[in-house]
Amino acid sequence: MQTVEVPADEVGEVGEVGTPIFEAIRREFGLPANEPLTEDTPEEPPAGD
């Protein structure tokens, strides 16, 4: 896991979408501003026998 340092003046409220904290994370990891910060997961897990 990687640590991302964010200046105190860029920290937004917890749970607020689109706050500067998320923008800072996107900048750190090179994600486009419109990309959600979630992993791609299949809607249904593969069936195992």
UniProtKB/TrEMBL annotation:
Q: Where is this region: Disordered?
A: 29-49
Q: What is this protein called?
A: Uncharacterized protein
Name the source organism.
Amycolatopsis arida
